[in-house]
Amino acid sequence: MKITTAVKTSMITVALGVAFMLPATARAQSDMSPDEFAFSAPQTTAAQSAAAQFAKADFEGKVSLPYNVKCGSKNLKAGRYSLSVKAEEGARVVTINNGSGESVNIHMREVLTNRWTSQSALLVGKSSEGRRLEAVYVEGLNAMLYPETNPNGSHARTEQLPIS
Q1: R_g over Cα of the chain
Q2: Region 91-96: what's the mean pLDDT?
Q3: In a 3-state reduction of DSSP, which class is residue 56?
């Protein structure tokens, strides 16, 4: 019986020794209702988060026009163009640039859509007056952008020019 008592006593001693060697947890004192925390991220307002959402939604791509296309008041000649979509004052602005410094800015209205096509595309309508920009589909935004100068759109036959 003395051996079991000695074994129990030595086991308890070893367990207590290990427990005392473990680091003690520290708890800091805090206010009842703090206004700010030292290690927390700054809070954003709704306006800041909306602006950040539009800033993240910018889009850039390249498109090849196989023929002349009328965009707003300008005529774009056949060729390779860069295209960007930016948010300005709650609306979208599509900028089409030919690379030599000449660019066209078109104010667009945004219509959210379900998946319309497999990739971003420039929609060009063909009529008796020629071809003109009807809309821009941006896959990353899942939105169709229509020129503000063409509110009703036309019922002309449209072609898709992929944006890469």
Answers
A1: 32
A2: 86
A3: helix
Among 118, 115, 116, 91, smallest CA distance to 105 is for: 91
Dihedral angle of Cα 9, 11, 15, 16, to the nearest 10 degrees: 10
CA distances from 18 to 12, 64, 82 (A): 10, 73, 68
From the list 112, 108, 111, the residue with the least C-alpha distance to 89 is 108
| Range 116-140 average pLDDT | 83
The pTM of the full predicted model, rounded to 2 decimals, is 0.58
Q: For residues 87 and 94, what is the distance between their CA atoms, to the nearest angstrom?
A: 9
Cα separation, 138 vs 23, whole angstroms:
56
If you average pLDDT over each of 20-34, 123-137, 143-157, which comes out highest? 123-137
